[in-house]
Design brief:
single chain; alpha/beta; Urease, subunit C, domain 1; 18 helices; 3 domains; about 20% strand; 6-stranded parallel sheet; TIM Barrel
């Protein structure tokens, strides 16, 4: 007598091998049998004509704060994610000295666009050391398993204070030794690794570059030493990948004897640089240095609207007169008051904000249903303005007031330099890449890419019309077994006997995304962009159903992951 049997499903098991019609039996949260099963169970689910796949393992999230107050970890739990990893990009909330919490909040607000008011109200900071932070996370129930990494910038600031943030001095030998010891302590307590940021895009809310940016080879060697001494964890990095960068990171990983995982992104200013990064990744693997590139599945899209963090009209004087009205009242004013309308379109102030907005028009598109994440060049704001002989500002304004709901532009900030997703296809096809960069929990009113696991399945295997389709088994492996194994989570990510029963049962014909919208459900009434899904019939976390046809069951079986995991 099993706990659950899933019958007649089309099983795509996460290993990349071809799909097969099969049954799956579960007891005590573990997959007991895969094949034709005739025994009985307390519950039997008929999965005929459905895809049965592992739960998604999202290794690039920023739930460092949200995990302390939100047991459901939305939006990820709306998208079949059963395990998430945070502490990415060198930012997080431990270790932290009493009285310096605001610095880490300011840093997270700037780097990941999570408002200070949300973090200050939501986080209780009942910890100081990283092991204490893990204990705080462990004390809460939640819908999915979570794991976290030590954020380099928090560690650096903890050890060096202001000297670690102002980039005026390097850590001395004693300070590097202290970082090594603290990282060892965190890894032994269960941290999955350490993350660092080496990109000039990452700044605190008050405009200062992220502390870890100026870490040199000696400091990275100190980090690598902790990984080497404990034989635990990996090094994760977000970098601009300028000359010599990959060599430096690979050298640190080689010294540690532990894996390296870097973000692999196409930057508009350097559209071919990612190829050099991928070449370094391939060469490192040939030398036995386990290295992966974390890739996206669609453009990194900055959503702009009247109420998002980036509003094209926010510096217009006419906007300041109407911004406090409701959407319905505001639209009525714009439609009826010709002076307000003309001012929004024609009286464009000359400042840094509008200069940047105008520069985006060639890679910015109207986001409307049916959702199109691979729009053509002819669909850009500039092209539409030329086609209809109108100002780009008028095109945008007409779109924003086309309904009383929030309407958005999508600026393809990265991964879309050539107005198509061919580069993403190449990245996804590489044997050395895994899925990531969704940034769930971050950029709350700017980017809405946490839905990428749901997007990837139908778009790349079923719906894409402007280029090649990819093998579904390959895609699913990219965000299940391969992401899990990268972080040493060897007990999940595949539907094999003895593995955890983290499972999605999917209606492949219906799996899709809803249109993004704004919600005001964060602490302190903070706003965030959300995007839900269709097509998930059942999601199981360790054999317990947590979601049924898009609705939560109320079960909260998720646990804190401490370190590397293996099959019991």
């Amino acid at each position: 007598m099993y706990d659950v049997i899933i019958k007649n499903g089309t099983v795509i098991d996460g290993t990349g091998t071809p799909r097969k019609l099969s049954d799956i039996a579960i007891t005590d949260g573990i997959i007991c049998e895969v094949g034709k099963i005739s025994d009985c169970a307390n519950r039997t689910i008929n999965a005929e004509n459905k895809i049965v796949a592992p739960g998604w393992v999202d290794i690039h999230t920023h739930y460092d704060g949200q995990a302390t107050w939100d047991p459901y970890l939305t939006p990820s739990s709306w998208h079949g994610v059963t395990t998430c990893v945070f502490g990415n990009c060198g930012v997080g909330f431990a270790p932290v000295k009493k009285g310096s919490e605001n610095y880490l909040i300011n840093l997270m607000e700037g780097v990941e666009d999570i408002p200070e008011s949300v973090l200050s109200e939501g986080i209780d900071f009942s910890w100081e050391s990283f092991p204490e932070y893990l204990n705080a996370l462990e004390n809460s129930k939640r819908i999915m398993d979570i794991g976290t990494q030590v954020p380099h910038s928090a560690l650096r600031f903890f050890v060096m204070g202001e000297d670690g943030a102002n980039h005026l001095s390097k850590p001395n030998a004693k300070q590097i030794s202290t970082m090594t010891s603290l990282l060892e302590e965190a890894l032994l307590a269960g941290a999955l690794g350490i993350s660092t940021s080496r990109t000039t895009k990452h700044k605190s809310a008050d405009g200062n570059l992220i502390p870890s940016l100026s870490a040199d080879d000696k400091e990275l060697a100190g980090i690598a030493e902790a990984l080497k001494n404990t034989k635990k964890g990996l090094l994760q990095c977000n970098s601009d990948m300028g000359p010599g960068e990959m060599e430096l990171l690979i050298q640190a990983s080689k010294h540690s004897g532990q894996p390296l995982s870097v973000l692999l992104i196409q930057y508009n200013d350097f559209p071919e640089r990612w190829r050099d990064t991928l070449k370094h990744i391939s060469e490192a693997n040939k030398k036995g240095i386990l290295t992966t590139g974390q890739v996206g599945s669609r453009p990194i899209g900055v959503l702009m609207g009247f109420n998002t963090s980036v509003n094209p009209f926010s510096s217009h004087e006419a906007w300041k007169k109407i911004k406090h009205f409701s959407a319905k009242e505001r639209n009525k004013i714009i439609n009826n008051d010709i002076s307000i309308r003309n001012s929004l379109i024609n009286d464009v102030p000359e400042n840094a904000h509008t200069k940047w907005i105008k520069q985006t028009f060639s890679l910015t598109y109207l986001l409307k249903e049916p959702l199109n994440y691979e729009p053509t060049k002819e669909m850009s704001i500039n092209s539409l303005a030329s086609k209809f002989n109108k100002s780009p500002w008028e095109i945008i304004l007409n779109h924003f007031i086309s309904s009383d709901n929030d309407e958005f532009l999508m600026h393809t900030f990265e991964n879309y330099t050539h107005n198509n997703l061919d580069v993403i296809a190449e990245m996804l096809e590489s044997e050395h890449t895994i899925c990531g960069v969704g940034d769930a929990g971050a950029h709350v009113a700017t980017i809405c890419d946490a839905s990428y696991p749901t997007f990837m399945v139908p778009f790349w295997s079923r719906d894409r019309t402007r280029g090649k389709l990819l093998n579904l088994e390959h895609l699913i492996a990219k965000q299940t077994l391969k992401t899990a194994q990268t972080y040493g989570l060897n007990d999940r990510g595949a539907l094999l006997k003895g593995m955890r029963a983290d499972i999605n049962i999917i209606d492949y014909e219906k799996i899709s995304l809803t249109k993004p919208s704004l919600s005001y459900d964060l602490p302190a009434g903070g706003k965030r962009l959300i995007q839900k899904s269709n097509g998930y019939n059942h999601t199981f976390v360790k054999g317990i159903e947590v979601s049924h046809n898009g609705e939560f069951t109320g079960e909260l079986p998720g646990k804190l992951i401490r370190g590397k995991q293996s099959i019991n």
